[in-house]
Design brief:
The chain contains 11 helices and 13 strands. It has 370 residues and is an alpha+beta fold. Helix 2 packs parallel to helix 3, helix 4 packs across helix 5 and helix 5 packs antiparallel against helix 9.
């Protein structure tokens, strides 16, 4: 997940006295305890631990993500959007595993108990949770620098989980939705590029309120061979699939990516920007050329789309799964056999058919290298 340069400090609100448990009760406790589901949450907030009961034959999928102010989001980020994104990035991990959400926990550090901020944050968080049937079942709160950490739980049938290790040579590489808009918004908010207002608003929505592809992940069970969610950029995340699958297959694997297909995956925001730029020629031009769009697709990060592989014979099944999930998908390349000396190597294929290595500047985000 790309870093966000810290912006202005949050607006000050005069806090009313509020203890830790009052804070939890006021903003995060459901009005009535949920009834035992028989296949999900048996006991939620209010005890020393939650009790979860996956359905028979299911495996428990568990993932955690931490969002740190000034590193993952601007310190003056809209709290409702932050609440949404904090859960969305975890739901995206479950989507990549083909797992149905069950529940989540929240660990939240706050500089102070700001009631307006907490009300908006919890609204954004719990609205998305309700939409996915994924209740908050516990966590922790403390005073400290703003930090949001969520652990999410899901379930998937034994033998049907999507993992990074199933890709095979010859597989198609597919990507959901579109790429690059979140990068576009981040660079605009950092002052690195200028965008027309409507384009910035749409791109900022992708940055701050990503849509986790849970329905697609579920529909791809038994269809896709491998999957990963694109959080750190295509160029950073695809190698994880190639490395895991190479080890599982016992042979080095690489990939060829279609340049035109990748540029096409930026079309939704690029077309909007083009239309606005025609009315405001001083804005947006640098973000519209093919090279910039290709770079955004490869190294954008924060897209939270699914990258998955499937056998060429499964193309109709992939399209049927995408239609059932109401999520667009596009073929973007294929898995190849790689040289033993260059495992997980990625090449770009131009419209002419010529191949070139992935450019050095097209690299994914790394928290400790950035």
């Amino acid at each position: 997940m790309p870093a966000a340069t810290s912006a202005a400090a949050p607006a000050a609100h005069a806090p009313r006295p509020c203890g830790e448990f009052d804070l939890i009760r006021r903003y995060f406790l459901p009005p009535a305890p949920p009834a035992p589901s028989g296949g999900g949450v048996e006991l939620g907030i209010g005890d020393d631990a939650a009790l979860l009961a996956p359905q028979p034959g299911m495996l428990l999928a568990v993932s955690s993500d931490m969002l740190v102010a000034g590193r993952h989001f601007f310190e003056d980020a809209d709290p409702a959007a932050l609440g949404h994104k904090a859960l969305a990035v975890n739901l995206s991990d479950l989507a990549a595993m083909g797992a149905q959400p069950l529940a989540f926990t929240l660990a939240l550090a706050l500089p102070q108990a700001d009631h307006a901020w907490l009300a908006a944050f919890s609204q954004g968080l719990l609205a998305l949770a309700g939409g996915h049937g994924c209740p908050l079942v516990g966590g922790d709160t403390t005073r400290g620098p703003l930090n949001v950490c969520i652990t999410i739980f899901g379930q998937t049938p034994r033998g049907q989980a999507l993992t990074r290790a199933g890709a095979r040579a010859g597989d198609d590489i597919w990507i959901s939705g579109s790429l690059g808009a979140a990068r576009l918004a981040l660079h605009a908010l950092q002052g690195r590029i200028t965008l027309p207002p409507a384009t910035l608003a749409a791109a900022r929505q992708r940055l701050e309120r990503p849509a986790p592809r849970v329905a697609l992940g579920l529909a791809l069970r038994g269809v896709a061979r491998s999957a990963i969610d694109l959080s750190d950029g295509l160029a950073g995340d695809l190698p994880h699939v190639l490395q895991a699958s190479s080890q599982a297959a016992g042979q080095p694997l690489g990939a060829e990516l279609d340049e035109q297909a990748l540029i096409g995956l930026t079309a939704p925001w690029a077309q909007e920007a083009q239309e606005e730029q025609e009315a405001q020629p001083a804005c947006g031009k640098s973000a519209l050329d093919a090279a910039a769009r290709l770079q955004a697709a490869l190294a954008g990060g924060d897209d939270y789309e699914l990258l998955f592989t499937a056998a060429p014979g499964a193309r109709q099944a992939v399209l049927a799964a995408a239609a059932a999930a109401q999520t667009p998908v596009a073929r973007a390349g294929r898995v190849t056999r790689a040289e033993a000396a260059a495992p997980a190597s990625i090449f770009l294929r131009a419209a002419s058919g010529a191949l070139r290595p992935l450019p050095a500047e097209a690299r994914g985000f790394d928290h400790f290298a950035a």
